[in-house]
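Many introductory courses stop at the sequence. We go one step further.
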Amino acid sequence: MAKFAERFPLLLIALLLFSAGWGGCADSDTDGSEFAEGSESGVSEEVVENSDTLFVSKEGEYSIQFSGGKSIAEQAVPVQTELGAINMNMVLADRGDYAMMAAYSDYPKAIIGLRKDREILDSARGGAVRNVNGTLVKERDYEFQGYPAKEFYVKGVQQGKDIYVRCNITLVGARLYQILYLSMDEADLNSAVANDYIASFKINGEAKEEEGTGEGK
């Protein structure tokens, strides 16, 4: 079975670039082939193996559980944006007809306070939809571990095929976390596998809280 990233590498990158561009356009030095080739690295991350794969990011201060096997790929992508250079730190678990992806990026601290938290999340969601020429299916605002968060569903078309995305984003100080579940089957976005994956995400530590965010959570 062909891997999800082999069929839609640009989709994966486009979905993640939205945050770095603050909802606008951003340029990356990668075309997504690193994920398609299944490259793996582990400079500052730790993979704790059990029945599935518990991924712990020490630098990113989060953990998440990837089901369906122990194969994951990591990539740090430098992105040039209107806010300056921003690194996208990503990890992908590709399972064929669906994929699970987690990432985080840090905004410049001097910029983050210029906009309200919810405005940043709304802009990030809008950028994601535009970048994949998609349609916003539904969304909701909520708080995750006390931080402003948003969940949204997107339907897009890539290479003549329908692609469905469920995305949860959380803003913690100047850091934006992105948890994505991508599938070729719309119903799969609310499957037990997808729900368990989304629910397994945890932010570890409170270091970023001290940096502050824009007014109006």
